Amino acid sequence: MLYFDHCASTPPYDEVVDTLAQVMKIHYANPSSIHRAGAEADKLITRSRALLGEQFGVKPEEWLFTSGGTESNNLAVKGAARQFRSRGNHLITTQIEHASVNDAFRQLELEGFQVTYLPVSSTGHVDPEQLRAAITDDTILVSIMHVNNEVGSIQPIDKIGKLLEAYPRVLFHVDAVQSIGKLPVKIKEWGIDLLSGSAHKLRGPKGIGYLYVRESLQLQPLLSGGSQERGLRAGTQNVPGIVASAKALRMSIQAEEQNRERLYALRGRLIEQAEQIPELKLNGSHDQAVMAPHIVHFSYAAMKPEVIVHMLEELGAIVSTKSACSSKDNKPSRVLLAMGANREHAAGGIRISFGDEHTEQDIDKLAVMLGEAVAKLKPLERSK
Amino acid sequence: MIYDKVIVRYGELVMKGRNRNQFEKRMLQQTKLALRGFESLTYAKSFGRLTISLNGAPFEAISERLKDVFGIVSFSPVILVDNELEKIQAAALQLMNGLEQTPATFKVSAKRAWKPFVHSSQEMNHLVGSHVLRAFADLKVDVRKPEVELRVDTYEEGTFVYNKVIAGAGGFPFGSNGKAMLLLSGGIDSPVAGWMAMRKGLKLEAVHFHSYPFTSDKAKEKVIDLARRLSYYAGAPLKLHLVPFTEIQTRLVQARQDSLMITMMRRAMLRITEQLAERNEAGGIVTGESLGQVASQTLSSMNVIGRATVLPLLKPLLMMDKQEIINEAVKIGTFETSILPYEDCCTLFLPKSPSTNPNLNVVERAEKNIPELEQMLLTAVEGTEVLELTPEAQASAEKAGEDEWF
C-alpha cells in the first residue's frame, strides 16, 4: 500500500519511535516535581526546548509544548485576542485557514470580536495589499497560515510580516503546521509573534504541538491549573513526546533542504502525468515558487471524492479528500469555494501528499492508478 | 554596511609607562582569544591601539564580542580606501548614509599621517566636508560639539574613514592584576562583583557553598550557569569550587546562637576560602557585599566577619545602591539567572533577627565551643569539587538524557 496522506499525518522516524519508548520507560517522573527524578525529566524538556530555539534562531524559552497543532492554534488565536481585547476589537484572518484557526475565530466572533476573513486568489493566495486595506485602528491580531493544508498554496508570510512592521500594535500569528520541515520558516526575519507547529506532521509523535510565543508576550491561557510552560499551558508535560518531537523536528529540518528539490520534482512529475487525465483539474498553481513541495490537489468535479479515495485504496494507494480534520462532513471544501470554485468542483477535491520515503516509481504507480480509477468511474459520473 | 577594519583603543594601560609593552601584548592575546571564532581576522599592533582587518568577517558580530573585552576603551569600524580624493569622499558619504539617524551637525577631522598625500589635513576637512554637505540638505558643520565626527586618517597603505566610536568595557586586560577568589552565591550581587573585579584585571576562581539537601541541585546549577557567564567575560575557562557546607551549617545551627548564626557562617566561609586561596595561589577574596544591604553587611558585621581572614577583602559593590547593582546585572546578562527561585545556603536557617552589631568576643567564644570546627573546615576544603567552566561547555540540561534521544 502506498501512503500519500502526509498532510494528515506522517510515518514517524524509527529513531523517534525508539526515543519515545526509551524516555517513556525511564523518565516517568513528573517534570514539575522537585526531587531528582523530576529534575531529570525537566532537564529533558529544557534540552528539547533548547533544540527548538536553535533550529529557529530564537530563545528556547520562546517555545511552548502543547498537545498538538490544534491546541497551538487555539491558544495563539484565542489567547492573544482575549489578552489584548482592551487594545482593540478587530481581528484578521483568511478564508482558507485550518478548521482550528477558522473555528477559533468563529468562537471569538460570538464573544463580540469583529473578524475580517480575507479572500484569496484563484490559486489560493492572499494579497498583502488587501490585508493592508483591512487593518484598522482596532486591529490587534492577524493570523495567516504559511502553507494551506488542502491545496498547498504558500502565503507571502515574508511580505506580510514586512507590512505589519508598520503596525506595532498588531500581533502576527502564523500557522506553520504544514510548512515546518518542508520550507524555511524564519520567525525573526518575518516579524512573527506567534507560530504553530505539529510534531506528527513532520514524522514525530502525535499529541505534541509546538507554539512559538515571542519573548515577554502574554497570552490568556486556555487551561486553568499549574504554571507549566511559562504559565501559558497548564498540565503535566508529555516528556517522552516532547523529547521525541524535538528530535523529529531537528531531523526533518535537517533533511528539509535536500528533500525540497526532490519533493518538487515528484510534485512536477505527478502533475504532468495526472494532467493527461482530462477529468482531473489541478487546484492551486503550476508555479512551484508559490506552492508547497509535498502537496498536489485535484478536483474531479463530477465524482464524489470519497468514491475515488476508496477506489484508489482498492488499487493500493491511500490519498485523502480534504483536510482530515474536516473530511467527515460532506460539504464542499471551504478552501476551494474561497478560491472561486463552483460547488461541484469544490466538492470533488482529492489531496495527494507525500514525503521523503516516496520515489519516482511510487509517483508513476499512483498516476497509473489514478487513470484506472477515473476510467472505471467515468460511466458513473453524476450528470450535470 | 561593509567595513574593512576595526580600530581598537586601549585606555588606562597606556598610562602604565614601562609596563605598556606587556599590557599591549596581553591585550592582543585577549582580543584574539575573544575573537577566535572569526578565522579571517588579521591583527596589527601600533602605538596604543590595535587594528583588526576583517577580511570579509561581519562587523556586527565582532562588535558584540569586542564590547565585552576588558581593557578596550572604544573601537571604531573603518572603511579603508585608496588615497584618492574621490574614493575618500565616496566612503565618507557612504558612512553618513549608513547612520541610523541623520545628525543635525557634524565635522570632518582629517589627519594626514602620510605626508606625500597631495591634500593637507585642512584641505581634506574642507574637501570631504563640503562633499557631505552637498548630499544632506539640513546638515550643518559644528566644529565644537558635532553630533558626528567623521574621521579621515591618511596612511601610506590607504585612508581610514570612520564616524562611529563604540564604547568598550574599559578596565585592564583580564588577568593583568593577579588572582583572587570570588564568593559566588547565586544571588544578584556576587556575579556583578565578579565582573567588576575581572574588569580591573583580576583573574578569578569562584567559590560556592552548597548544603544539599537543604539547598537543591538546581541552586547549584544556577551557580554553574553564572560562573559560565563570567567565564565568557574572562575569555578563559573559569574554575568553580563547590564546597560541601551542610555539615558545618547544621553544626553551627546547633550552637544555639541564633542571632550570630549568619556571622559565624560567613566567617567559616571566609576561612575555607582562605585555604582554597592558598592552595590556588590567589591573593584576595572578592565578595558581592554592599554596605548596609543586609544584617551581615553592616560595618560592624563586616568588621567581625572580616577578621576571620588575613587576605584583603575586595568589595566592588560596597557603595552601590541595589538598583545600580541590578542594572549592572542586567547589562552583563546574569540577572535572569540570578533571580531564579532556588534557595542558597545563606537564606537557610535565617534567624528572625540576625545581629547587625555582633560582638567579636561573643562570636569567638561561640566558635571555641565547637572544638571540631577546624577539622570540619578542613574536611570541607578537602571535599571541594572543582569544575572548569567555559561559556561553550554544556549546561547540565544540555547534556540531559542520552545524546541519541536528541
UniProtKB/TrEMBL annotation, chain A:
<dbReference type="Pfam" id="PF00266">
    <property type="entry name" value="Aminotran_5"/>
</dbReference>
<dbReference type="InterPro" id="IPR000192">
    <property type="entry name" value="Aminotrans_V_dom"/>
</dbReference>
<keyword id="KW-0408">Iron</keyword>
<dbReference type="InterPro" id="IPR020578">
    <property type="entry name" value="Aminotrans_V_PyrdxlP_BS"/>
</dbReference>
<keyword id="KW-0032">Aminotransferase</keyword>
<protein>
    <submittedName>
        <fullName>Aminotransferase V</fullName>
    </submittedName>
</protein>
<dbReference type="InterPro" id="IPR015422">
    <property type="entry name" value="PyrdxlP-dep_Trfase_small"/>
</dbReference>
<dbReference type="GO" id="GO:0008483">
    <property type="term" value="F:transaminase activity"/>
</dbReference>
<keyword id="KW-0663">Pyridoxal phosphate</keyword>
<dbReference type="InterPro" id="IPR015421">
    <property type="entry name" value="PyrdxlP-dep_Trfase_major"/>
</dbReference>
<feature type="domain" description="Aminotransferase class V">
    <location>
        <begin position="3"/>
        <end position="366"/>
    </location>
</feature>
<keyword id="KW-0808">Transferase</keyword>
<keyword id="KW-0411">Iron-sulfur</keyword>
<dbReference type="InterPro" id="IPR015424">
    <property type="entry name" value="PyrdxlP-dep_Trfase"/>
</dbReference>
<dbReference type="InterPro" id="IPR016454">
    <property type="entry name" value="Cysteine_dSase"/>
</dbReference>
<comment type="similarity">
    <text>Belongs to the class-V pyridoxal-phosphate-dependent aminotransferase family. NifS/IscS subfamily.</text>
</comment>
<keyword id="KW-0479">Metal-binding</keyword>
From TrEMBL, chain B:
<comment type="function">
    <text>Catalyzes the ATP-dependent transfer of a sulfur to tRNA to produce 4-thiouridine in position 8 of tRNAs, which functions as a near-UV photosensor. Also catalyzes the transfer of sulfur to the sulfur carrier protein ThiS, forming ThiS-thiocarboxylate. This is a step in the synthesis of thiazole, in the thiamine biosynthesis pathway. The sulfur is donated as persulfide by IscS.</text>
</comment>
<keyword id="KW-0067">ATP-binding</keyword>
<keyword id="KW-0820">tRNA-binding</keyword>
<feature type="binding site">
    <location>
        <begin position="183"/>
        <end position="184"/>
    </location>
    <ligand>
        <name>ATP</name>
    </ligand>
</feature>
<dbReference type="InterPro" id="IPR049962">
    <property type="entry name" value="THUMP_ThiI"/>
</dbReference>
<keyword id="KW-0547">Nucleotide-binding</keyword>
<dbReference type="InterPro" id="IPR050102">
    <property type="entry name" value="tRNA_sulfurtransferase_ThiI"/>
</dbReference>
<feature type="binding site">
    <location>
        <position position="266"/>
    </location>
    <ligand>
        <name>ATP</name>
    </ligand>
</feature>
<feature type="binding site">
    <location>
        <position position="288"/>
    </location>
    <ligand>
        <name>ATP</name>
    </ligand>
</feature>
<dbReference type="InterPro" id="IPR003720">
    <property type="entry name" value="tRNA_STrfase"/>
</dbReference>
<feature type="binding site">
    <location>
        <begin position="208"/>
        <end position="209"/>
    </location>
    <ligand>
        <name>ATP</name>
    </ligand>
</feature>
<dbReference type="InterPro" id="IPR049961">
    <property type="entry name" value="ThiI_N"/>
</dbReference>
<keyword id="KW-0808">Transferase</keyword>
<comment type="pathway">
    <text>Cofactor biosynthesis; thiamine diphosphate biosynthesis.</text>
</comment>
<dbReference type="InterPro" id="IPR020536">
    <property type="entry name" value="ThiI_AANH"/>
</dbReference>
<dbReference type="InterPro" id="IPR054173">
    <property type="entry name" value="ThiI_fer"/>
</dbReference>
<feature type="binding site">
    <location>
        <position position="297"/>
    </location>
    <ligand>
        <name>ATP</name>
    </ligand>
</feature>
<keyword id="KW-0784">Thiamine biosynthesis</keyword>
<dbReference type="InterPro" id="IPR004114">
    <property type="entry name" value="THUMP_dom"/>
</dbReference>
<dbReference type="Pfam" id="PF22025">
    <property type="entry name" value="ThiI_fer"/>
</dbReference>
<comment type="similarity">
    <text>Belongs to the ThiI family.</text>
</comment>
<keyword id="KW-0694">RNA-binding</keyword>
